[in-house]
Specification:
The complex is a heterodimer of chains A (about 475) and B (about 200). Chain A has helices at about 135-140, 160-170, 190-205, 230-240, 255-265, 280-290, 320-325, 335-340, 355-360, 370-395, 400-415, 425-440, 450-455, and strands at about 5-10, 10-15, 20, 30-35, 45-50, 55-60, 75-80, 80-85, 95, 110-115, 125, 155, 180-190, 210-215, 245-250, 295, 300-310, 330, 350-355. Helices cover about 30% and strands about 20% of the residues of chain A. In chain A, α2 packs parallel to α3 (about 190-205), α6 (about 280-290) packs across α7 (about 320-325) and α10 packs across α11. Chain B is built from four helices and four strands; from the N terminus they run ααβαβββα. In chain B, strands 2-1-3-4 form a four-stranded mixed beta sheet. Classes of the chains: A alpha/beta (about 475), B alpha+beta (about 200).
């Protein structure tokens, strides 16, 4: 924390969108924190985006509405934005810039950390392979989340992504360890009702005391959204790598973050990339997503579940597209399943956890986990093909085995996929349901599973 | 007579068959009822177990909720009390600073503050502001800085100085108030540590 204060500059050259251009600036630094003071002594925070030729471009987080060139002064604080961290932040609610929102005093900080984080040394990264049980069958069974992974939820407008995320936050546990678990929740431009749902659901499940909430609501300044995931991840990193906790970070909704980035980019008159997003969107997103992981010699881990709502459910949109390049898989929510009232409406055929294979199996979850998951994926995929075929030729035109696959698809959706929002299934229950699903098929159809597992777990009576 | 016997035999046969059928039906029904009862018993047992298990889950949930909320409430109360205590210490310290004698040592402090401020603005050609009561002390310190000029108006602060460039574009606040405000988060931690509270 800098102890020498910064210089105040009162020559404002221009105010443009969320940006203030300050003249005659000497000795300012890139990313330096700036306090902007209005004529009525209101203070707003900002940061330096560019310096040079005696000018500094300052991005004002709370927006520039009400600022005037003549009556505004800017104080360059002499340090980058920092977040006070300590174990005391657990159970607290902060705004999008990390200021208390729960009528309690500022946390007594153990440290003040740069919100941009320190890049993890790739050499020091430990490959994530420890299973996190979420209690949600479809995730634990087929898109397994591991400690230190970044696994986004690709959703659409109005779908139940926040309910899924809240259920994960409530139920997530690290099996077979006494190490502490914490949840950092960052709401980025969400509605009040959504943020309140998260707070209430964590409180009611007793999980609030192991959670930290950062809330930038829909009516809060859009530019603040650039900061919200960064302060949240700073706290997460501190708890993981200094306090040795396993931290699950939920960032919702990253689409709003990208929109804020686009707004700033437009104000800076940068050359736009796809759909008007800046060309550096990929790089910028990576500075957030790459803050997940585990480090050699450190007990804790940071696991990220960013949520993004795909505009028009378009998975080729730049935000999900670029996110998919950085993250280690994705959980895709399907509009059709959602319309059928299935919860969680996870479209398993489009979902994937790239790190699952290393986090499951003998000694980690259960010996048959990988194979029974593959078998279900195969069976559900075939069921979808048969359903499409039935749409053309009718059920009468299907063979017996096709009909059995259709039944398997129904059982998969109704018994395995469907789950109550407060139903916490353990791994054995989830795997048992996976076996139940494929047990509606004849034994000789189970080609992805070893015979010894079929002998042990197959529940059908067909031979 | 013959026809009566034949009739009786037929009736008897029908009665016997009917009896057999009734007994057999009764047996079947009994067996079926028994089976249904057995099935129901296992179903009831399962249902009973489910109700007990759901009830236990619900009780666990409520227990977690109550314990979690109470823990959090207690911790929040502690935060409020510590926050208030730290603020009281701060206020007391500010009062003591305000009452501290403006002696030779204080003149030395002002000299340090001025040099620090001028080095930040990278100029000695500045206008210096102080509070009304310290104007004379500051003026005497300024004798060492011929380019600097004392401002005609005063500012409201505990002590220390504020300097501005001649064109008014740059200001550096090195008043005691500004310094305390900058260092407050660090000082809060140290004060809280005295109460046995760490971050």
């Amino acid at each position: 924390m800098a102890t020498v204060g910064g210089v105040e500059y009162s020559k404002i050259a221009e105010i443009k969108g969320p940006l203030v251009i300050v003249d005659d600036v000497e000795n300012a630094a890139f990313d330096e924190l700036v306090e902007v003071e209005t004529s009525d002594n209101e203070r707003r925070l900002g940061k330096v985006l560019e310096v040079g030729n005696g000018k500094a471009i300052v991005q004002v987080f709370e927006g520039t509405t009400g600022l005037s060139i003549s009556d505004t002064s800017t104080r360059f604080v002499g340090k980058v934005m920092e977040m006070p961290v300590s174990k005391e932040v657990l159970g607290r609610v902060f705004d999008g810039l990390g200021r208390p929102k729960d009528n309690l005093p500022d946390p007594i900080a153990d440290k003040f950390l740069d919100i941009n984080g320190a890049p993890m040394n790739p050499e020091q990264r430990e490959y994530p392979k420890d299973f996190i049980q979420t209690g949600v069958s479809v995730i634990d069974g087929m898109i397994t989340l591991v400690r230190g992974q970044k696994l986004p939820i690709f959703s659409g407008s109005g779908m139940s992504h926040n309910i899924v995320a809240a259920q994960i936050a409530r139920q997530a546990t690290v099996i077979g360890t006494q190490e502490e678990f914490a949840v950092v929740f960052a709401a980025i431009g969400v509605q009040y009702s959504e943020a309140e749902y998260f707070r209430r659901t964590l409180e009611e499940s007793g999980a609030l005391k192991r959670s930290v909430l950062f809330l930038n609501l829909a009516d809060d300044p859009a530019i603040e959204r650039i900061i919200t995931p960064r302060v949240a991840l700073t706290v997460a990193e501190y708890m993981a790598f200094e306090l040795g906790m396993h931290v699950l970070v939920i960032l919702t909704d990253m689409t709003n973050y990208a929109e804020a980035l686009r707004e700033i980019s437009a104000a800076r008159e940068e050359v736009p990339g796809r759909k008007g997003y800046p060309g550096y969107l990929y790089t910028d997103l990576s500075t957030i997503y790459e803050r997940a992981g585990k480090l050699v010699g450190k007990t804790g881990s940071v696991t990220q579940v960013p949520i993004l709502s795909m505009p028009s459910d378009d998975i080729t949109h730049p935000i999900p597209d670029l996110t998919g390049y950085i993250t280690e898989g994705q959980i895709v929510l399907g509009r059709d399943l959602f319309r059928q009232g299935i919860y969680p409406p996870v479209n398993i055929l489009m979902s994937l956890s790239r790190l699952m294979k290393d986090g499951i199996g003998e000694g980690r979850t259960r010996e048959d986990h990988g194979e029974i998951s593959n078998q279900n994926y195969d069976a559900y995929s075939r069921a979808q093909e048969v359903r499409a075929l039935a749409g053309i030729v009718g059920k009468a035109g299907l063979t017996d085995i096709d009909l059995k696959y259709m039944d398997t698809g129904d059982i998969f959706e109704k018994e395995f996929l469907t789950q109550d929002i407060d139903e916490n299934r353990n791994l054995d229950e989830s795997l048992s349901l996976l076996w139940k699903t494929v047990s509606s098929l004849p034994r000789n159809e189970l080609t992805k599973v070893k015979d010894r597992y079929v002998e042990k777990f197959y529940q059908g009576n067909d031979d | 007579m013959l026809s009566t016997n034949a009739l009786e035999q037929t009736i008897s046969k029908i009665l016997s068959q009917t009896e057999k059928r009734v007994v057999s039906t009764l047996d079947e029904t009994l067996a079926e009822s028994q089976k249904q009862l057995d099935d129901m018993r296992s179903e009831l047992d399962a249902e009973y177990d489910k109700i007990i298990s759901d009830g236990k889950k619900e009780a666990d949930k409520i227990e977690k909720q109550i314990v979690g909320s109470s823990d959090l409430e207690a911790r929040n109360q502690q935060l409020l009390v510590v926050g208030e205590a730290v603020d009281n210490v701060f206020n007391e310290v500010l009062e003591q600073i305000a009452k501290a004698p403006r002696d030779k040592e204080y003149s030395g402090l002002l000299d340090t503050l001025l040099r620090e401020a001028m080095s930040v603005l990278r100029s000695t050609d500045v206008i210096v502001y102080s509070n009304q009561s310290e104007r004379d002390t500051v003026q005497s310190v300024l004798e060492k800085f011929p380019d600097a000029e004392m401002a005609s108006e005063s500012i409201d602060c505990l002590g220390g100085i504020q300097i501005k460039s001649r064109d008014g574009a740059m200001t550096f606040d090195n008043t005691l108030d500004a310094r305390i405000s900058r260092l407050k988060p660090l000082i809060r931690r140290d004060i809280a540590a005295k109460f046995g509270v760490s971050g």
